[in-house]
Every structure is written in C-alpha cells, then in structure tokens.
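Figure 2 data, in text form.
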Amino acid sequence: MDKLIILDDVFDDATRGALAAFDYGKGEQWYGIGASPLHEKIVDICREHFDLRSVVGYEMWRNAVNPDWHVDKDEKLFNTTERLEFPLCSAVYYATIENLVGGEFYTGDMRCIPKANRLILFSPGIHHGVSPFMGTRIAVSLNPWSRKVER
C-alpha cells in the first residue's frame, strides 16, 4: 500500500538552519550510514514509517529546480538497462521557504504547499513533481537504499 506522509515542525531551529546551510554539491551525492548524523535525523524519521532495516546509505541532494513528473529510481541502472529499481522510500524536507509563489509538490491525486520545517515522506515508485516557482525554496531530497547506488 502506498503511503504519503506530511509532517510539520519536525526539527528545532538549529537543525533546520544546519540543513539549510549544508553544502549539497551538484546533483545527487551518496552517503553511507554514519556519514552525516545531521541528515540521518531525516533517515530516523523515515524509519518510523517505513521498513529501513536493510538500509546501507542514502542519496541526497538539494532541489533548486522544479522537476516535472518523475519517479525516484536508480538513474544509472535505468539509463543502461531500462530496469526500474526504487529506494526504500523518499523524503523531501523544506528547510527554508521565503516569498514563494508556486513550488507545490504533487502526485496524481494531491498537491502539498511547501512550508518551512515540513517533511514529506512517500512510498517507493510514486510518480511526483514540483510546480514552477519563484522565491526561495531550499528543499532537501533524500532516498534511503538497501544497496549502494552508483553515480
């Protein structure tokens, strides 16, 4: 059964600020469990709602654009074999929202307005996207995996 969970006011101001200020680099980055206790606070919340007993690490990136319809998957595997493999779940954390117009997270049957300190968790394989936006939207995306995902 697919799940989509929206949690508000998930972290204290210091944690929220640290998540917003972190240098996420370009594109998805791989982190083994234990590499970033700050971001594993998100993984820990995922554990409360999804079975992550097999997690070995996670992909993470800062989403500064508005990706249209897509599904979180092993991109390299899909591009080379067209086979779909999904993370254990997906998480989107809104660290900072300022003067935002648009930028809603959406699936086939719902829309969620970004709000600072909001965390969206969802089941593997759910098609989703982000509407165009103007303003400041620091969104951290995190996908826990049961195997290392090659870039």
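Caption note: Residues 4-139 form a domain with the Jelly Rolls fold (CATH 2.60.120.620).
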